[in-house]
Amino acid sequence: MKETIRKANQYIDENREKVDQQYRGSFHLLPPIGWMNDPNGFVYFRGEYHLFYQFYPYDSVWGPMHWGHAKSKDLLHWEELPVALAPSESYDKDGCFSGSAIVKDDKLYLLYTGHVDDEEKREETQCLAVSTDGITFEKIPTNPVIHMQHIDGIADIADFRDPKVFEYKGSYYTVVASKTVDDRGQILLFASSNLEDWSFKSVLLEGEKGQGIMWECPDFFPLDGKWVLILSPIEMERQQEKYWNLNSTVAFIGDMNWETGQFVVDSYDEIDGGLDFYAPQTCQGPNGERYMVAWMQMWQRSIPSHDLGHGWAGSMTVPRKLGLRDGRLVQELPESVKDHFLVENAPETIVKGNQITIPARGKQTLFEIGAKSGRSFILSYGNESDADSALQLIYDAFNKRFSLSRDQFGYLISGKESPEIQSRWIQLDGEKDHHFSILRDTNSIEVFVDGKTLSMTFYETTENPVYTFKADEGVDLVVKTYQK
């Protein structure tokens, strides 16, 4: 592996200056060059958060997967580290696919999927790498540690990936994504005493018809007295306003029977109501808090930063702090993110049945909006004289929904969904007041309201853009705007 790692790091160093910075965000984790997708190995190690990711440095399209690597003290400012994994062995020669990390005996272990895909076979097995310094990793000689013999008669080795490892009551477990023989998603559970010797324990959960033809990127963790299983189904059927993206994300909430290995689901829901959110993974912080980050992109859609030859594609969301409320997963902005903007006291702007325009001083903005129940508002971003081609964020109090749209704005992002999806919306409780935190980076917007989120990327072409607020007559709409 040392030679493939050296080659990748040399290529990055020699070519990073060629990357066009126009649409690159300032506080979202990005690849230094090339392609990024799933977050991997999100872990707290020796006083810092480490986040790995699926990475192909040699082009801004998906290729043989490496693991990129960065670390942070505050979940906002990320320090680039050398490539952690690269294809090098017979069991991962076509890619080091997604996986996770765990700390054991002050060492950092990566459990990942080795991918082989040639004319003779397609195999996905689970492999282990270890590091004493958290930067340089060695693949263990007994790889793969979970392979064909573990799943004989249970799952297909061709679709068996994305292990998420964790410790519970002195034992190690991992959940792994797979599919049934009739193309329904299922999650498998394995157990180990030492991370190297694994045994199959159970089918943790099996999908129903309509819940996707394959489940990817599972994560399983306790939260506020319940167990939560998050995963990413491919081609989940639409349900009213939910699951409109070609690939979705779902949180199942329930109770775990550790004797039988069965997860009993109480409820499930879409994790993010936006356009760009996939493959989320969580990390437990030093005080037991749980954070989640996801790939802020979507499969089988165009990516303008690639189409324009900018030399990069993909980014991560801002990490979100998780909790449970009324039986559903809730997401909040971490305090470190808000503190980044709140270093100056922004004046309150009261909007009463009129319109205000705020010049966009920079590409990084946080809006804090207090909206009364029953009163609508529109926040748009674009050219002041061309409202039809602006980004639109709308709270429709009559229909009790919040929507975002990038239709007709900037470079077209087209995909395989039918019809084309350029906007999404979520349902809100119309009988209560709402507080909206709207976080904008160079090419993304993330909305937080009532514990729900919507994530969206965009690539603007507007010159001298402005933010415009419009509100219903009689609304006391309190708007605070923080710009960097």
Could you explain the architecture of this structure?
With 484 residues, this protein is mainly β. It is built from 3 helices and 33 strands. The strands form 7 sheets. It has a 6-stranded antiparallel beta sheet, with no helix packed on it. The chain has a 6-stranded antiparallel beta sheet with strand order 23-32-25-26-27-28, with no helix packed on it. It has a 5-stranded mixed beta sheet with strand order 4-3-2-1-19. The chain is globular and about 70 Å long. The relative contact order is 0.12.
Quick overview of this protein structure:
The chain is built from 3 helices and 33 strands. With 484 residues, it is mostly beta strands.
List the main descriptive attributes of the protein structure presented here:
about 475 residues, mainly beta, 6-stranded antiparallel sheet, about 5% helix, globular
Distance between the termini: 42 Å
Are there runs of 5+ residues with pLDDT below 50, and where?
none
Number of strands: 33
Tally of individual helices = 3
Spatial shape: globular
Strand neighbour order, sheet with most strands: 22-33-24-29-30-31
Helices and strands: which structural class? mainly beta
Averaged pLDDT: 94
Helix coverage percent of residues?
under 10%
Strand content: over 45%
Main sheet makeup: 6 strands, antiparallel
The radius of gyration is: 22 Å
